[in-house]
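Interim report, section 4.2 (structural modelling).
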Amino acid sequence: AVGAGDDAARNLSSCLTSHGVTTFSLPSSPTYAALLNSSIRNLRFALPGVGKPAAVVLPSSKHGLRAAVLCARAAALAVRVRSGGHSYEGLSYTTENRVPFAVIDLAGLSRVRVDGGSATAWAEAGATLGELYHAVGTSSRTLAFPAGSCSTIGLGGIVSGGGFGLLSRKHGLAADNVLDAVLIDPSGNILTRDTMGDDVFWAIRGGGGGSWGVVYAWKLRLVPVPDTITVFTASRTGPVELVAGLVHRWQFVGPNLPDDFYLSVYLPTGGGSSPDSNVSVSFTGQVLGPKRRAMAALRRSFPELGLAASELAETSWLDATAQFAGLATAADLPDRRLGSKQYSKGKSDYVRSPIPLHTMAGIVRYLATGPPEGGCVILDPYGGAMARVGSGATPFPHRAGTLYGVQYQVYWDEDPGEAAPVGWLRSLHAFMAPHVSRAPRGAYVNYLDLDLGVNDWTVAAGGSSEAAVAHARASWGAAYFGDNFDRLVRAKTAVDPGNVFNNAQSIPPLVNV
Ligand code: FDA
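Predicted structure of the assembly:
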């Protein structure tokens, strides 16, 4: 396989050079490791045992990007597209079964053009959320974009999978605010909304990255925000019963607050070996309005939280995005090098009926037995605009009736082998089964989880089979997309019947079978 990879890399290299693309790196190059590792966030996939690409290509124009796709195909390499590199399962820079592959990294395609007059922006897909937020927030204090909170996430991945954030109860997912897109298909055609067809334009807005082609750029609808908003993080520590009581009560508050309110829950793992140990919880809040209004509404609807005026601060949306990204100032938002690199594993769920108080106490107790300082559970409130979009309007099906999303995370700094934290995470996920959505048990495609099932491609262009489609439909397809899965298969078959854009959980096409 190594020899085949070497030949392929030579072919790729001469093809790229003949197309005028010189920014690529082969394993023999001194820049290769730094370029490959530049945006790997999850160190599980930087270990020496993980198969490495035959080349990393860093195009700097749409035409260079197109050439990269065509040259990788001509060299019989599998294509892996990377924007911000935040894939929880490393799917943007690894392959299954050691198939030789090339990474096409869009970090050099990160221009953002804001048009304040029409409240729209064109953003190249390699731009990070921080680059987008900075461009939007510095162009106007009253324009914003609804997406995630970590500044180094790439627009290529997050928008492809939906994109939930602090503005989503007011304005929906990032994908709900895509007006147009430029997609390069497997044959090198450059498609827009008008030419890609309705099914494909629908699929690229929530059907997950890596299945459809390369998104070169998104046209985004920017949304209005007041020039002053209110933010807070309210932490509480106490006995299990107190914390469970707050989280139990939150289930009735968070998803039902006015759309201008976002209030999420963060529960760290660890904290208690004995049944009497104190545990903690924090509530992250953003309110699109002044502190006075935020205080009045939260004191009325959630008096148990005992929010003090001193816990709230007024700021601009731009400064709030920096704060929630953990940055010192908004000037750091465009810096792609910031953010931590750790070993990690995530899983997700959706809750449709409030969890009873005694069960919530059991969950909080279970979390207390988890890795100390090495994990968390985050509850994201839905409702509002999230519930007003139909469950088939985009591939993302978790809409009306979903109270909140659950994200489970474990992370660790050394590589002792993954058994302990990942095993604990899986047992937590099993423990939660009776309390979350069922038939199907939902999951969020942007919180990729290969435990749900995988494709088993053994060649660069994955192929197509009824069995692959049935397997995907019955496992991760149902969890991520519910009833939308079959339309995704139709879109895939239309745009990429040869399955050039594949990965461990890409949508399989259904051709001639
Ligand atoms: P990456 O480059 O790894 O790509 C992810 C997938 O999309 C891969 O399959 C890749 O091939 C494909 N892809 C990338 N660029 C593409 C392109 N231009 N065209 C086609 N396919 C492309 N999510 C959320 O909704 N809200 C949040 O607040 C957060 N917060 C968060 C914090 C942290 C620290 C992490 C690690 C992750 C999140 N996420 C999140 C999840 C995040 O949305 C998800 O991991 C995205 O897929 C990341 O997109 P990147 O472009 O960074 O990833």
